[in-house]
Amino acid sequence: MTIKAFDFFENSVRRFKIIIWIILNYYRFKHLGVRSYIYNSTRVSGHKNIYIGNRTGLSEFAWLMVDTSVNTTPQLVIGDDVYIGRLLHLVCFDEIIIENSVLIADKVYISDNLHDYHDILKPIKEQPIIVKNKVRIGSGSWIGENVSIIGANVGKNSVIAAHSVVTKDIPDYCVAAGIPAKIIKRYDFDRAEWIKVD
Questions:
Q1: What helix, strand, coil percent values describe the chain, rounded to 5?
Q2: Could you give the residue numbers annotated as active site?
């Protein structure tokens, strides 16, 4: 078998697996859009509370977890034309919305909650989950590799630099970086350029 023929065969098998996975899971989700794909290595819990738009892709080894133990009607919404890289870890107890055309790199953590730690007599894993805030990632934004977003919003067409930790809202048309993430650039519409923030 030639290399071209082997590549064609391998790609065909991969596509076939994706199609079978979509067929088996289509009715489990609240909505699974047209031409959206989720690798079969993706771990999903809470299918009925997950809405995925059209032409959206989740890469290998993502984990989507929607839990109803705090709120009986949580919702995870992922819009149209969203690309999500490998090893995404997304934990939703209330509401997480990823708007259209968002680009998310590999190894990103997104959560609307955290573990309580106030009782020093109990291990943290035995303390309750606290919903911090609803999370919304604005359309057209770019979330860099190894970013954590915890109970905060990211504005439209904003950039979160790699390795940043977002715990407070980032407005539209901003670049944020650091731990915790701070705005380092804003788009100035009057000057039609990105301006550094002191």
A1: 15, 35, 50
A2: 118
